[in-house]
Design goal:
Elements (H helix, E strand, L loop, with lengths): L1 H19 L3 E5 L5 H5 L6 E5 L18 E7 L4 H12 L2 E12 L7 H6 L2 E10 L2 E9 L12 E5 L2 E5 L11 H9 L8 E5 L5 H9 L4 E6 L2 H10 L4 E4 L11 E6 L4 E2 L2 E2 L2 H13 E12 L5 H5 L2 E10 L2 E9 L1
Parallel strand pairs: 1-2, 1-3, 3-4, 9-10, 9-12, 10-11, 12-15
Antiparallel strand pairs: 4-6, 5-6, 7-8, 13-14, 15-17, 16-17
């Protein structure tokens, strides 16, 4: 269970910070709030960073520019994202400061020391508990890359070009599901209002605007780093930071497109898909359509049928299915 995993990781970090009583702390991506609660009343200056706006909480694309004695980092899913976050953490340490990292074994925490050793001169394993690992790193090496811009990577695929960042969906490539959706998706009419749910770095928007420059595109995503990337890739468009449709009540779209997320970290999470299906009908015009792509094993017929009078499975290929739904109920 993702919640149990997050709680176990949070316990490790919280126990360590309670034991060492730092004077200033930056807490990165700790999902349960245990670390911050452990520091209540300690007198420490506590700074936090959340990348994901889950439940409508405040989130930003990059950690704040602070200098602290200790950075507490909850290990991200992707190794490339871990490297990037370790650099960001190192850049925010005061002299003689230290990084404390915790993660679960099934997230790759056993080998996290190797990643830390590429950025720090001193790396120590502090302990393990409940299938989780706790690491400490000191003495950052030269050439730390602490700013977001330095991690941008240009991607060129299938005639499209965009910037991506480590840890974003399908980083460095065109996802096979997105490619399949683009193969069958009709070109919108000029002026059509298009909503891209879970827009990521904005690849669908880039493709749609290449086909129809006059499209009125809006992207939404829960990941603040993805939102920043999409804004870089699609200047002049509306990109909204939103947990599903929370705080984004606009309707009147002619087309909704999505390659919806199905994982949070390493855990399967169908809540974003459920929120998408529930909110779709009210976001579309009377003649609007929804075009979605999912993994082949995900059957949307029943879920879409609850909100639409017409549902079609357009194509199955490359391990994915494309669905079209129209005539909202």
């Amino acid at each position: 269970m993702a919640r149990d995993r997050d709680a176990a990781v949070g316990d490790l970090l919280a126990a360590e910070l309670e034991a060492v009583a730092p004077t200033s702390v930056l807490v990165l991506e700790e999902r349960t709030g245990q670390v911050v609660r452990a520091l209540d009343g300690s007198g420490a200056a506590v700074h936090t960073w959340e990348r994901f706006a889950v439940g409508g909480r405040a989130a930003t694309a990059w950690p704040p520019e602070v200098r602290v004695d200790l950075v507490a980092l909850r290990m991200p899913k992707a190794r490339a994202a871990l490297v990037m976050m370790v650099h960001a953490a190192a850049a925010r340490l005061a002299p003689k400061g230290r990084l404390v990292l915790a993660g679960a074994n099934d997230e790759g925490a056993r080998s996290a020391g190797k990643t830390l050793a590429g950025v720090f001169g001193s790396v120590t394993k502090l302990g393990s508990r409940r299938h989780c690992q706790l690491w400490e790193a000191r003495d950052p090496l030269p050439d730390i890359r602490g700013d977001r811009a330095s991690w941008a990577e240009r991607v060129d695929a299938d005639g499209l070009s965009w910037s991506s960042w480590p840890g974003l969906f399908a980083h460095g490539r065109l996802d096979a599901g997105t490619a399949l959706l683009l193969d069958v998706l009709p070109t919108p009419a000029a002026g059509a209002r298009v909503l891209d749910f879970g827009c990521g770095a904005g690849v669908l928007g880039i493709a749609l605007r290449a086909r129809q420059p006059a499209v009125d595109y809006t992207g939404i995503d829960v990941d603040a780093l993805a939102v920043a990337a999409a804004r870089d890739n699609l200047p002049g468009t509306r990109i909204v930071l939103s947990d599903a449709f929370l705080g984004h009540g606009d309707g009147g779209y002619d087309l909704v497109v999505s390659n919806p997320p199905l994982h949070t970290g390493v855990a399967r999470d169908v809540r974003p898909l459920a929120d998408l299906l529930a909110g779709l009908p009210s976001r579309l015009t009377r003649d609007g359509e929804a075009w979605l792509v999912t993994q082949r094993g995900v059957d949307l017929a029943a879920g879409l049928g609850d909100g639409f009078r017409q549902v079609e499975r357009v194509r199955t290929a490359r391990g994915f299915r494309v669905w079209r739904a129209w005539k909202p109920r």
